C-alpha cells in the first residue's frame, strides 16, 4: 500500500480484502462544537491541518519533508519568520528550500475548499461559551500547576 487510508476503510480492508484509494483522507479529532477540534485532510503527498481553537493552518509535503517540520502555509501567506540568531524577520523563501511551490499551492487551495465544504460550526451562542470555558479551564490548570510548584519549593 503506497497511499494513506482512513479508519473507515478498515472494514473493507479486513473483511472484504478490498483496498480502494480515496481522493482525500479525513481525520477529525473532536465533536464539531468542541473548542480544541482539529481537522486533517490528506491528499497524495500533502497534509492540511486546521486548528479551530487557534484558528491556524498547517500544510506539509510528506515526500519533501517526512518529519513535518516545514509548514508551507508560512510560505504561501508570504509571512516572515524570525531568524533567531540574527533577531530579524526575513522572508520564508530566503532561508528555506522548497522546489515544488507552485504545485503545492494548487493543492493547498484545493484542500482549503474541501475544508470549507465539510466544516461545520455551531451557532454563536453554542461556540462562545465553549471557547470561554476552554480558556478558563486552561488558565485554572496553569494556576494550579504554578501553585503546586511554589508550595513544593524548599525555603
Give me the secondary-structure topology.
Blueprint: H1 10-16, E1 25-28, E2 38-43, E3 46-51, E4 56-61, H2 73-76, E5 80-83, E6 88-91, H3 92-95, H4 101-118, H5 124-152
Antiparallel strand pairs: 1-2, 2-3, 3-4, 5-6
In brief, what are we looking at here?
The chain has 155 residues and is an alpha+beta fold. Helices cover 40% and strands 19% of the residues.
Features of this protein?
155 residues; alpha+beta; 2 domains; four-stranded antiparallel sheet; two-stranded antiparallel ribbon; 5 helices; 6 strands; 19% strand; disordered C terminus
The shape, in one word, is globular
Instruction: Flag low-confidence runs.
Output: 151-155
Give, in spatial order, the strands making up the sheet with the most strands: 1-2-3-4
End-to-end CA span: 60 Å
Report on this model:
This protein has 155 residues and is of the alpha+beta class. It has two domains: 7-121, no CATH class; 123-155. The chain is built from five helices and six strands; from the N terminus they run αββββαββααα. It has helices at 10-16, 73-76, 92-95, 101-118, 124-152, and strands at 25-28, 38-43, 46-51, 56-61, 80-83, 88-91. A four-stranded antiparallel sheet has the order 1-2-3-4, covered by helices on one side. A two-stranded antiparallel ribbon has the order 5-6. The longest helix has 29 residues, at 124-152. 10% of the residues are buried.
Amino acid at each position: 500500500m503506497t497511499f494513506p487510508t482512513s479508519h473507515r476503510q478498515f472494514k473493507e480492508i479486513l473483511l472484504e480484502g478490498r483496498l480502494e484509494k480515496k481522493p482525500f483522507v479525513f481525520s477529525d479529532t473532536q465533536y464539531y462544537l468542541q473548542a480544541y477540534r482539529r481537522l486533517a485532510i490528506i491528499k497524495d503527498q500533502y497534509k492540511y491541518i486546521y486548528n479551530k481553537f487557534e484558528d491556524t493552518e498547517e500544510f506539509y509535503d510528506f515526500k519533501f519533508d517526512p518529519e513535518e517540520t516545514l509548514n508551507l502555509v508560512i510560505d504561501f501567506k508570504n509571512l516572515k519568520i524570525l531568524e533567531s540568531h540574527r533577531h530579524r524577520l526575513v522572508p520564508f523563501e530566503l532561508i528555506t528550500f522548497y522546489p515544488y511551490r507552485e504545485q503545492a499551492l494548487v493543492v493547498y487551495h484545493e484542500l482549503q475548499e474541501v475544508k470549507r465544504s465539510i466544516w461545520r460550526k455551531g451557532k454563536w451562542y453554542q461556540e462562545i461559551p465553549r471557547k470561554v470555558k476552554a480558556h478558563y479551564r486552561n488558565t485554572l490548570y496553569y494556576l494550579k500547576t504554578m501553585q503546586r510548584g511554589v508550595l513544593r519549593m524548599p525555603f
